[in-house]
Amino acid sequence: MWPALLLPHCQSDDVCRYGRTPSGHQRFLCKSCRRAFQLSFIYEASKPGTQGNIVMVPVSVIPPKR
């Protein structure tokens, strides 16, 4: 058991190890809601909360290719 880990989605502490990512980071599985998660990220865009900070550029601003 990992008593210090809480699943970000449901705040459950009933988690177990669930293998590793291709880059070697430990993955965990919540036994309550069956979601897999990891504690560390390689890419900044994968971190929780980053998606809300990405600004989409309107298509009308980009000039057409010639």
From TrEMBL:
GO biological process: DNA transposition
All copies of domain InsA N-terminal zinc ribbon, residue ranges: 8-34
PANTHER family, per the entry: INSERTION ELEMENT IS1 1 PROTEIN INSA-RELATED
The protein's name: InsA N-terminal zinc ribbon domain-containing protein
